[in-house]
Amino acid sequence: MGAHGSAEHRSDTVRDREIAGEQCHLDTVYRRLEEKLAEAEYILEDAAKRVQVGTPGALAERDAQVYRAGAHLQRLNNEFEDFLFGRIDLQRADAPEEHGIPSQTPMDPADPVVAESLHIGRLGVLDAEFGPLVIDWRAPAAAPFYRATPLEPGRVLRRRVIRSKGRKVIGVEDDLLRPDLTPVLGGEELPVVGDGALMATLGRARGHSMRDIVSSIQREQDEVIRAAAAGATLVTGGPGTGKTAVALHRAAFLLYQDRRRYAGGILVVSPTALLVSYTEGVLPALGEEGQVAIRAVGSLVDGVEASRYDSPEVSRIKGSARMVQLLRRAARAALELGAPTELRVFARGRALRLDAGRLKAVRGNVVGGGGTPLNLLRPRARRLLLDALWSEAVRDLPKPGTYAEREQRQEERESFDEYVSDEAPFLDFLDAWWPAVTPRRVLATLRQHRHTNRIARRAVTPEEARLLAASWRHLDERGAGGLSAHDVALLDELQVLLGEPARSKVREVDAVDLLTGLDEVTTYGERAYRQRERERVAEERREYAHVIVDEAQDLTPMQWRMIGRRSRMATWTIVGDPAQSSWPFPAEAQAAMDEVLAGKPRRRHTLTVNYRNPAEIAEVAAKVLELAAPGTPSPSAVRSTGAHPRFAAVREPDPAAFAAAARAELERLLGEVDGTVAVVVPMDRRAEAAGWTAGLGERVVALGSLEAKGLEYDATVVADPTGIAGESEAGLRVLYVALTRATQRLTVLSGPDDLPDAAGVPALLK
Ligand SMILES: Nc1ncnc2c1ncn2[C@@H]1O[C@H](COP(=O)(O)OP(=O)(O)OP(=O)(O)O)[C@@H](O)[C@H]1O
Fold it and tell me: I need a labelling partner for 192 at 20 to 30 A (CA). Which of 27, 340, 410, 628 fits?
């Protein structure tokens, strides 16, 4: 034991010495941070004391300084976990930097001396002489920390991950990137401590919120994070390859690179509100509080929050681009619903009347070739009604012959318009005949199956019309009531078709009339007015500079259209995995995406390593992948735990027995892992599953299959796999999602429909 013991002892002292060295550096960093904090506070106070005098230029300068100091203070005050997390020891450079990134050119093996050591952290910190104490992880100089591999080490001799708690360094983990050399630092051999930081991170218990991965971003991920912003960056990769993590780190990177452009201008679209709350903490941990809008696809329309799920049959109709046609007709029909069929006014000493046929013709003229939002056509409706009434009024009169007669007729016309358009019968008629229509009101009209079927024509089949109507039956006549994420995209589409309703019913002269007079059919003024109106509506709907789509494989054509409307000027990062798609028509979604990206240059990346699931779980998932998306390669699992998934079964069709089995599994798993446990069930068994978890505490959640998207847990029970696979056309892909949520343990619990064979494996998973 002697020799072994002393070797261990020696390595312990080396470790302690290395930790002490890093502690010393961290202390210096914190001292410097405190100085900077004091400085920022001083600048703020000083600025506040100074009176508002000085040249505009000096004031602007001061304001800018105050702003920077304030922002800086806020970031410094953020108590970061692992503020300083990395270090690279580099060989002397013999080649100039490439695009601002230190050269990756291999070095001269004859010169294994560490020429410089760089510390990497969440923010950059300079010492009093402007020397770098810590380099921001997003800076080009930090790239080799993530890019260097033993095959392509570049200048990196050693990479070190530093773990700390508060202000105390508790560990270091090194990778020697040039085992072929004996690198030297300060005249001594470069010590190498620990056995890899990545594995330690991956094995940690999960909580209910996602952690950042700054200290262990891998090379293929780093390439995505730092990819140029222009055009569209498309990233695919299997479950657990870090797509979500990478997408969020990319947002932080873009902010670092061009804050002026991206602050407040990045939108991250997530499939569910659950995934939004799971990922919300990552950007603040990276020092980017409140700079990025992370929204669920069901919350993209202001003031609306999706709270319902549609059945798969209904989802596939609502998500389809066929809905555009249906909604166009629905909007038009909503306008006409209950419209009066006769207009009577008294003017020029007699009753004037427009009958149903006449009104129909006028309506057709108002809409013209279509295209203009219906609510914006109201001024035109008013004008064309007056035209029609006027021709009634002068029907029996001879046409004016002379110039003077024409002048006279024109004057009469003007006073006719003025008089009629102030009369209550006319105003009441206009309100009823061309009412302001809201998107929700239109949806509400589609509750009536007969109505929906009537306007559907070839857009949807009668059966589809029935399903749609049934899905909206709970709405009231104004459209109030819970909506699904699919409905939200429909509301957004309707908003475009309808335009903003006129603000109020104030009965004054229309802006259009002021601009144009009443005599031309369509005037420049009117077009300009409509144009401004359209721009106003568009402005109210935010435009983003960069849009990041997570789980892009699930977006329906209608959702792509909705996101596209917010991103006309944007550059894109789109991450997804077709094999996990719950949308049944990938080609249609692809076409919708192509339309949104409209010729933007695309750069493609593939992530290949599964950091979430141990090999034992990945292996089971791969079998379902082969059924769900034959030929799709499985990402390779980066670690294994030795714990194989368990297959349990309930043989009787007895809900109570199934519940007892599920609960027993959950309790067992709670004992086996330190973190979170989830049970995933078919969507229509969610209420049942909620009962199984009652009283088991906060570590346990019950999820419907579609709710599990993007989330992860230490252990999962996938209950009723056959039920999940049979839920929809995309069921097998949804099951693949469910099977890939666990970081440690998986139990598959099947019912009598899918009993396991002698080896305990249900047929579906063989
Ligand atoms: N380089 C890394 N270092 C440490 N952990 C990582 C790394 N990359 C990914 N992970 C971890 O792996 C897990 C999976 O990552 P993430 O959720 O981003 O994957 P995903 O590709 O979005 O998965 P899915 O397609 O299933 O939604 C997370 O816990 C993440 O923190």
Answer: 27
Quick one: 183 and 63 in the same domain?
A: yes
Ligand 1 contact via 526 beta carbon (within 6 Å): no
Q: Are residues 583 and 622 in the same domain?
A: no
Residue with CA at minimum distance from ligand 1 atom 9? 242
| Predicted confidence band of residue 30 (pLDDT cuts 50, 70, 90) | confident
Of 36-50, 180-194, 565-579, the poorest mean pLDDT is in 36-50
State the DSSP string of 6-51. HHHHHHHHHHHHHHHHHHHHHHHHHHHHHHHHHHHHHHHHHHHHS-
pLDDT for residue 533 = 55
CA 710 / ligand 1 centre spacing (Å):
9
Same-domain check for residues 54 and 197: yes
Total domains, the chain: 4
**Most confident among 181-190, 232-241, 455-464 (mean pLDDT):** 232-241
Question: Whose CA is closest to 272, among 733, 748, 724, 711?
Answer: 711
Same domain, 670 and 593: no
Domain membership flag for residue 521: no
Binding-site residue ranges for ATP: 237-244
Domain identity same for 626 and 587: no
Q: For ligand 1, is residue 614 a contact (CB within 6 Å)?
A: no
pTM value? 0.84
Does residue 538 lie within any of the structural domains?
Answer: no
How many Å from the N-terminal Cα to the C-terminal Cα in the chain?
48
CB 646 within 8 A of CB 717: no
Instruction: Say what the pLDDT of residue 515 is.
Output: 38
**Mean per-residue pLDDT over the chain, rounded:** 86
Sequence-ordered list of residues with C-beta below 8 angstroms from that of 467, at least 6 positions apart, any chain: 311, 313, 314, 317
Largest CA distance in the chain: 125
Confirm or reject: Cβ of 144 under 6 Å from ligand 1: no
Mutate to test the pocket of ligand 1, among 149, 209, 213 (most ligand atoms within 8 A of CB): 213
Domain of 422 in residue numbering reads as 340-433
| CA atoms within 13 A of residue 359's CA, in its CB half-sphere | 16
Same domain flag for 730 and 620: yes
Query: Considering 559, 590, 607, which residue would you say is the last residue of a domain?
Result: 607
Residue among 173, 215, 582, 611 whose CB has most ligand 1 atoms within 8 A, to mutate: 611
Q: Is residue 457 part of a domain?
A: no
Which pLDDT band, with edges at 50, 70 and 90, does 208 fall under? Answer: confident
Q: Is 712 in the pocket of ligand 1 (CB under 6 A)?
A: yes
**Ligand 1 in reach of 242 Cβ (< 6 A):** yes
Rounded-to-integer distance, Cα 347 and Cα 358, Å: 18
CATH assignment of the domain containing 253: 3.40.50.300
* 439 belongs to a structural domain: no
The tokens describing 576, both together, are 């997804």
Q: Is the CB of 239 under 6 A from ligand 1?
A: yes
Instruction: Show the CA angle centred on residue 364, arms to residues 359 and 367, nearest 5°.
Output: 125
112 with 250, same domain?
A: no
Based on the domain organization, do 689 and 602 belong to the same domain? no
Is the C-beta atom of 740 inside 6 A of ligand 1? Answer: yes
Q: What is the pLDDT of residues 238-260, one digit of tens each?
A: 999 999 999 999 999 999 999 88
What is the 729 CA–ligand 1 centroid distance (Å)?
27
Most confident region among 71-80, 280-289, 529-538, 544-553 by mean pLDDT:
544-553
Say if the ipTM goes beyond 0.95: yes
CB 181 within 8 A of CB 114: no
Residues 698-725: tens digit of each pLDDT: 999 999 999 999 999 999 999 999 999 9
Which of 607, 625, 643 is the last residue in one of the domains?
A: 607
